Amino acid sequence: MGHEAVVRLLLNRGDIDVNVRDSIGWTPLSCAAGSANTTGRPTVLQLLLDDHRVDINTEDKCKRTPLHLAVRMGHEAAVRLLLDCSDININLKDVFDLTPLDYAWDGCHEAIVQLLMNYLRVQFSIHAVGGLLINHC
């Protein structure tokens, strides 16, 4: 049985906590969005996002959301799926005061930077990077 089948089976049960956390505060959604192994993850991610019980803006112990994690790993498909959710907050900052846009910029994920920049809810910010002021706009 693959990841997708297991996730379907578990989501069909009403008695499980879909937002359960591991020792660092990751939920199943966090794992699907930020996993380095992306085989099958877009389908698993979509299954989780389709469940109304899943908290899309959940934060781990470092206040990173699933969007932070997907961006940090450069998972463009996951970022697109997350941005399609109407209740996503793309401006949340982690404990380092970084937004998903900051992670995309710092990781040189140009396509993801464009996605986030085109997304209407991005707050424009100016950060000192390498001694220079760079406007993310």
Describe the protein's architecture and organization.
This protein has a two-stranded antiparallel sheet with strand order 1-2. Strand 1 and strand 2 form a beta hairpin. The longest helix has 9 residues. Helix 4 packs parallel to helix 6. It has a single domain, classed as Alpha Horseshoe (Serine Threonine Protein Phosphatase 5, Tetratricopeptide repeat). By secondary structure, the protein is mainly α. Helices cover about 40% and strands about 5% of the residues.
Explain briefly what this protein structure is:
InterPro entries: Ankyrin_rpt, Ankyrin_rpt-contain_sf. The protein is 42% helix and 6% strand. With 137 residues, it is mainly α.
Name the descriptors.
mainly alpha; Serine Threonine Protein Phosphatase 5, Tetratricopeptide repeat; two-stranded antiparallel sheet; 7 helices; globular
Largest sheet: 2 strands, antiparallel
Give me the Rg, rounded. Answer: 15 Å
What spatial order of strands do you see in the largest sheet? 1-2
According to CATH, the homologous superfamily is: Ankyrin repeat-containing domain
What's the pLDDT, averaged over the residues? 85
**Cα-to-Cα separation, first versus last residue:** 45 Å
Q: How many helix segments?
A: 7
Secondary-structure arrangement, i.e. CATH architecture: Alpha Horseshoe
**Secondary-structure element string:** HHHHHHHEE
Q: Could you say which overall geometry the principal axes of the C-alpha atoms support?
A: globular
| β-sheet strand percentage | 5-15%
Helix content: 40-55%
Structural class: mainly alpha
Strand element count:
2
What's the CATH class label?
Answer: Mainly Alpha
Uncertain regions spanning at least 5 consecutive residues: 123-137
Which fold does the CATH topology refer to?
A: Serine Threonine Protein Phosphatase 5, Tetratricopeptide repeat
- Counting structural domains, the number is 1
Pfam families: Ank (PF00023), Ank_2 (PF12796)
Protein name: Ankyrin repeat-containing domain protein
ANK repeats: 62-84
Keywords: ANK repeat, Repeat
